[in-house]
Specification:
Length: about 130
């Protein structure tokens, strides 16, 4: 039997025009203190993004999402923030910001398979 882990997650959103507060979901990030798990999954629909906000630079958005993923994964390409512990990385990624990429408030849950939970949340909240 697997242990149930208390985890937190946030939905990653694209907010093309911050002042309008319109957004659509593109990913999720999951964090669990023990076993120090943090992972992110995203999918960017270029056609949806172009229809929603044609003036937005899709490649720049993709690069920024990849930077988020590098930070979550603690890759060196994520810069100094990626070298922080998992909790600090999650808190930085989910901090309130006024930018094109934003996250929802964090939500808790229990999981006995964090990777499966990440994929299920992505399927339910993004696809």
């Amino acid at each position: 039997m697997h242990d149930k882990h208390l985890y937190e997650y946030a939905v990653i959103r694209i907010v093309p025009q911050v002042e309008r507060e319109e957004f659509f979901n593109v990913g999720v990030i999951v964090y669990c203190k023990n076993p120090r798990y943090i992972a992110m999954q995203y999918g960017l629909d270029d056609q949806k993004l172009a229809a929603f906000c044609p003036e937005l630079d899709v490649e720049q958005v993709r690069k920024n999402l990849e930077a988020f993923k590098s930070i979550a994964s603690a890759k060196k390409t994520g810069g100094p923030i990626a070298q922080l512990d998992a909790a600090s990385r999650f808190r930085w990624l989910t901090a309130t910001r006024s930018s094109v990429i934003q996250t929802s408030k964090t939500h808790p849950g229990f999981s006995d398979d964090l990777e499966a939970t990440l994929h299920k949340l992505f399927e339910d909240l993004v696809l």
